[in-house]
Specification:
The protein is α+β, with helices and mostly antiparallel strands. The chain is built from 28 helices and 28 strands. About 3% of the residues have low confidence.
Length: 892
Amino acid sequence: MTRPVVSRLAFAAAAVVTATLALASCARAPARPRPAPPEVPPALQLPRDLLPLRYGLELTVNPELDGFTGRVEIEVRVGRAGRFFWMHARDLAVRDVTVEAGGAQIPATLAQVTAEGVARLSALQTIPTGRAVIRAAFSGTWGAHLAGLYRTRTVGAAYAYTHLEPTAARRVFPCFDEPSFKAPFDIALVVREADVAVSNGPVEAQEPSGDGMKRVRFARTPPLPTYLVFAAAGPFDVVEGEPLPPSEVRSRPLPVRAVAPRGTGARYAFALQATRELLPMLEAWFGIPFPYAKLDQVVSSDFAYGGMENAGAILYAEERLAFDAGRSPEAKRTQVGGLLAHELAHQWFGDLVTLAWWDDVWLNESFATFMTWKTLAAWRPEEPIAEDVGAAIGGVMDQDALASARAIRQPLLRTSDIGNQFDALSYTKGASILRGFERLLGEERFRNGIRSYLSAHANGTGTTEAVLAALSRAGGRDVVPAFHSFLDQPGTPLVHARAVCDASGARVRLEVERYRPVGSLAGEGKPFGVPVCVRFAAGGAEDERCALASGEGSAIPLPGCPDWIMPDAGGTGPYRWDLPAEGEAALRARGLPALAPVERLSYARNVLAGARAGRRTYAAALATLAPLAKDPSRRVATSLFPALELLVNEVLPPGARDATRAWAAGLYRPRLTALGLVPAPSETTDARRLRQELARFLVRVARDPDTTHRLAQLGRAYAGGDGRFHPEAVSPDLAEVALVAAVMEGNRGTFDELARRLPSVEDSELRARILAALGSALDPELSRRALALAGDPSLRIYERARPLFDQAWAPETREGAWRTLQARFGALAAALPDNAADRLPSVAAGFCEEARVPEVQSFLAPRVQAVAGAPRSLAQTLERIALCAALRERQR
């Protein structure tokens, strides 16, 4: 699953188990909870006394009605004789329950007994051990917050989709809603005659069902967990071309389609072509053919995530997948490719081999992110993907530096804890760890280990221990303890590197501790085992050497005394690093020109990390890095942006902001002036991205009056005054920031025009631009109107958090956002999707005074307990406030 960028503030502060195989003998067995007595429902995992072997599922789905109905038939293996068993069913009206067992039809009931959807199956007589079939009819209501079986409306038509990860399948049909309970599904959908029905398998047959309905039957799936089951119905456009031809590892053609709301299919031609290019790359890397009989790329106009990896039928948010040449920013081509690559990679990691339990979410998301980076670099070799990866890794280290950060893998105590696993730590931190160990082991050995793991566990489940055992065997060294030092505790390691030349020879001495920002209360934890690769120049030659560094101290032998060392060869190591003053001076003077852009980016990130940790002043760090503003690499040139944004939005008191903004504008305005506001026909995508990022920074952060005014003029021309937009007035790359500039200038006419048009705009990409502009209002009256949009039921569900988070981002409007949260917390939590409601406490994360901590805690602590994931968000918010205050004091 791909998480969306909910807000700048929220993210800154975007298979059958083959147990007889040798690999599986190393795997950690899935947790097997003791069966609870019939009167005590299990708190988290179901007992294993009923094991699903096959599902027969029929759903009647008419999005114009108030709910749905269905029937389910579950073939199970009964492990103990009894009358009472535990299953899942949540908010369903279940009737006509029978159990066929031992040649008898046994009447039964299925009743929900916990709020999380644990349900008790009660039979009128004992169900014997062996095979049995549970049958039931049921009805349900449309899922709230875009989960379960939910419906949307766009361009006057209604559509229905399922989104079942992690525990929403139980809201749609009675089942065993845990990932280890994989079973094949026979699915049928009864839909309106004019509607298109989509599920995991290809259509096998359809027939009239009466009353203007038809029954569509799909081919049996391979074993799936319930969270990957998919159903959709509506008047879709179906865009299909020739099947994807056989590949090096796939002997059959593969049907690939785009399925989108009526009238929008043409917007997904690029995504369909990108799919055809990316999928064979993934097949070649995994050495395993695409695991399912067909691939549908399905689009929803209202979806809380970027994408969801349902087997053979991936669901995407319209805003994230649509691409309109000449109207969408050129950079969106790479963004769409990245989204596709992530969800496609899941078809192997997550779908073919599924995590055994939700404490291993990193297995799904880290590997999908790791494969996204690798596939994008091969697909777009002309683009600086490595630098983008380096920037992403640097960003997640800020979150991981918190004492309140969680370990990637940690025990789950309640169902509501599951959602906490889907964060940047499982995605980006996990992927950076994989990248570091791939560099240590070598690409071929690493890939062989992953192929071995996937082959051994195909169509079943896998575990962290099984993956690490496979990597250790393939790599020829035991990496299990080192991996666990990253997975089982929070924190980012800080590697102190020092060149030593003495009678014992030349070497790089490495010492490791936990990185801590100023004011941190984080403990040291257990020693990290860090895969460190050092680039160096010695004897007129450059080279690279790697080692597994530990807290006790390690050394990397060198062929001679080095002229300079760079402790992060490749620039994407899963650690921060520093050098002694003389080592940094040598690197800056002699080594920096020889480094790859991603390595120069690592250098800049770690200079700034040193300032955040109090090892140098921000003034010294900015002075050191200011020359990089002219660097030819986009990511290196803009590497100061996060630090400057932190300073002017949070750390600096109001009286000191203007001077820093002016300095920042003077540093970057010449770069934008040289690029101009109109792209040249032959301009690279990266140049377009640089223009876009410079413009946003100069308007939103540096508040440069000249840049803001020039872009505001373009924004007003784009918005027009005649009731329609004029895309020819501004480059698509600058369309959003131009509207933002127009509103930030305090132009009420532009605000009024955008607010008036928003309800009638169907295009999700255009809606996002409008909401970004409205949310950027600084004028007090316009700010109040922007905040009134937060949670507005007229907005699409996934949009409702944007105005609040955007207003909380700016120092001028943060207090208003905080007051809005205080006045409407309950209503907002109820109106927002789960992955936005859990971040509501971060509205206060921009405060930078210790005195605000008790105020925020006093208000939010009693309220967040009812919102899954929000207590952790509150803990991080309180810590961010305290750390910012400590940094302000240190840098005073």
